């Protein structure tokens, strides 16, 4: 029973980080109709940036995460118009062009990471490493708890932005129809570019948390791309609200598999589940857009 | 006329295909300008080009003498031109109120937007009652009313309506035309694309008829002598 409870807590804490990792990805799909293969790449780069900031400048990852957020907001904002251009080009199948384009970005990131940081795993140390909170039978690493809380804070921030601001209203209009939003005075290109920036910022921030909890190496990219795909499909592609449930579901699934079956089976079981979901509910279990 | 919305010698199309061939239209402020024509004659294409949804290949679009050709779509609202696309273009997942607020997006002034919406919605009892209903679950007629009301939030000089009566019952078509006259009474210039000539012709101050992407007729409703005359224009006469 204690093990069960402990696993439940572990699953929820990781699930929260997966929510932060996928929520921007979903937004990008909902608004730009781009499936960004590089989602795991942004996660990885966020982790490496935090690694540099702590080893070169001594900035704790729980502080540097805000710098990473700002940095990747600007990078994504800069790259956004290019993504938009590819996605709205007049060539046949711009959706596939965009997927191929982001796949290219992903390969570029992975190559860059190998070159800059080699194949070895890098760990990102925090003052919170090795500190625990005991709640009855359950032991909670302070680092995971703080990571969870930060991830929730970022995700909540996104919801407030989407549902309580003028910019958010423009984003939600855009997710329904680009032309109609444009006719209302929404600068579709500009808002889309910011959406891409918000996505890369959220994803890189989740990457900081993941690198701090585990570590970062050039192969985490593909892993988290697959995780983001899993959460997105389970939530229903483009559904931002559904990510809350789907992210937790993946966190719990992974935690229980790791505890009771063995961590090396987690990817296998995660994707077995994904195929089942696709067979049973191809539109996702939670459905619908922003 | 000084404040008219003019299209001179417009040529445009989709991809490489030219759809609109050398069309000229002038819409005086505060009046109702109707564009008629068979399906596929380029009516929507012309107003999409005016709104900036499509680039003009050649020709000029001017508002009150100022050239607006090639300006991006999102700048049109602040120039005083609002377009209602075919089908209304409401946001289905937004409530009626959220749709109306989107109509005021360009104003960027919450209080002004709310005031304008309250005074507009007073004229639409059906919408009053359904303020918080998602627009996607309204009837076609109600969606059209949302779209028309939404077009007015910024208090534009011109509203372009693409087939506001499409798919409505005869009674609603009549109501819609009364709404259009209401726009004119507020001083708004209207460019209306319509299929329902019988209902739209009586409210038109000036009339254009397109066929095959060309302008076949320009005049006033009095210039159209009778149904036979109208048919002959449709079939490609003069
Ligand atoms: N997005 C598009 N891509 C390619 N061709 C298009 C597109 N939209 C319209 N067309 C073509 O352009 C021509 C004119 O279309 P348009 O929509 O302007 O006609 P319309 O006069 O508004 O007709 P309707 O009364 O049916 O709305 C048609 O032949 C149509 O097939
Ligand atoms: Mg049309």
TrEMBL record, chain A:
CDD domains assigned to the protein according to its UniProt record, in alphabetical order: TM_PBP1_LivH_like
Pfam families referenced in this protein's UniProt entry, alphabetically: BPD_transp_2 (PF02653)
Domain of life (superkingdom): Bacteria
Membrane-crossing segments per the record: 12-35, 50-75, 96-118, 138-163, 193-214, 226-253, 265-286
Keyword Oxidoreductase set for record: no
Compartment list: Cell inner membrane
Xref: InterPro entries: ABC_transp_permease (IPR001851), BCAA_transport_permease (IPR052157)
Entry keywords, A to Z: Amino-acid transport, Cell membrane, Membrane, Transmembrane, Transmembrane helix, Transport
Record membrane topology: Multi-pass membrane protein
Family: Belongs to the binding-protein-dependent transport system permease family. LivHM subfamily.
Protein name: Branched-chain amino acid ABC transporter permease
Automatic annotation (TrEMBL), chain B:
UniProt keywords, alphabetically: Amino-acid transport, ATP-binding, Nucleotide-binding, Transport
Entry superkingdom: Bacteria
SUPFAM superfamilies xref list: P-loop containing nucleoside triphosphate hydrolases (SSF52540)
Gene Ontology MF, one: ATP binding
Pfam families on file: ABC_tran
Limits of the ABC transporter domain: 5-237
Similarity annotation: Belongs to the ABC transporter superfamily.
Protein name per its UniProtKB record: ABC transporter ATP-binding protein
Species in which this protein is naturally found: Marinobacter azerbaijanicus
């Amino acid at each position: 029973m204690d093990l069960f409870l402990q696993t439940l807590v572990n699953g929820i804490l990781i699930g929260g980080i997966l929510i932060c990792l996928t929520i921007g990805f979903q937004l990008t799909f909902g608004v730009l109709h781009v499936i960004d293969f590089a989602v795991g790449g942004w996660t990885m780069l966020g982790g490496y940036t935090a690694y540099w900031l702590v080893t070169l400048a001594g900035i704790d990852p729980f502080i540097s995460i805000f710098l990473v957020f700002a940095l990747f907001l600007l990078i994504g904002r800069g790259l956004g118009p290019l993504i938009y251009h590819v996605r709205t080009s007049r060539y046949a199948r711009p959706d596939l062009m965009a997927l191929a384009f982001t796949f290219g970005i992903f390969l570029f990131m992975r190559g860059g990471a190998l070159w800059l940081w080699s194949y070895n795993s890098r760990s990102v140390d925090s003052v919170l490493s090795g500190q625990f909170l005991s709640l009855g039978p359950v032991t909670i690493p302070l680092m995971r708890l703080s990571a969870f809380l930060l991830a929730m804070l970022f995700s909540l921030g996104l919801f407030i932005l989407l549902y309580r601001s003028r910019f958010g209203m423009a984003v939600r209009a855009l997710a329904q129809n680009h032309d109609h939003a444009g006719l209302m005075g929404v600068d579709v290109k500009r808002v889309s570019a910011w959406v891409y920036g918000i996505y890369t910022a959220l994803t890189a921030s989740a990457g900081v948390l993941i690198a701090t909890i585990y570590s970062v190496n050039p192969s985490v990219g593909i892993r988290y791309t697959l995780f983001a795909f899993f959460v997105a499909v389970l939530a229903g592609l483009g559904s931002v609200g559904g990510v809350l449930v789907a992210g937790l579901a993946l966190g719990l699934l992974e935690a229980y598999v790791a505890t009771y079956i063995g961590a090396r089976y987690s990817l296998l079981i995660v994707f077995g589940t994904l195929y089942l979901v696709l067979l049973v509910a191809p539109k996702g279990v939670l459905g619908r857009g922003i | 006329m000084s404040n008219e919305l003019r299209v001179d010698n417009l040529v445009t199309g989709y991809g490489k295909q030219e759809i609109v061939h050398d069309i000229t239209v002038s819409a005086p402020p505060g009046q109702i300008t109707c564009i008629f024509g068979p399906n596929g004659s380029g009516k929507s294409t012309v107003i999409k080009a005016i709104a900036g949804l499509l680039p003009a290949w050649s020709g000029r679009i001017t508002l009150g003498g100022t050239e607006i050709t090639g300006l991006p779509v999102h700048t049109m609202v602040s120039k005083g031109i609002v377009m209602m696309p075919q089908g209304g273009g409401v946001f289905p997942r937004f409530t009626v109120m959220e749709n109306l607020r989107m109509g005021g997006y360009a104003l960027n002034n919450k209080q002004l937007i709310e005031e304008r919406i309250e005074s507009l919605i007073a004229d639409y009892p059906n919408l009053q009652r359904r303020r918080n209903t998602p627009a996607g679950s309204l009837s076609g007629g109600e969606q059209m009313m949302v779209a028309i009301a939404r077009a007015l939030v910024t208090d534009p000089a011109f509203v372009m309506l693409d087939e506001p009566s499409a798919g409505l019952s005869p009674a609603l078509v009549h109501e819609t035309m009364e709404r259009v006259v209401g726009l004119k009474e507020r001083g708004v210039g209207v460019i209306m694309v319509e299929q329902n000539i019988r209902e739209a012709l009586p409210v038109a101050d000036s009339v254009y008829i397109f066929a095959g992407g060309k302008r076949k007729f320009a005049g006033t409703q009095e210039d159209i002598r009778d149904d036979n005359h109208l048919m002959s224009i449709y079939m490609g006469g003069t």
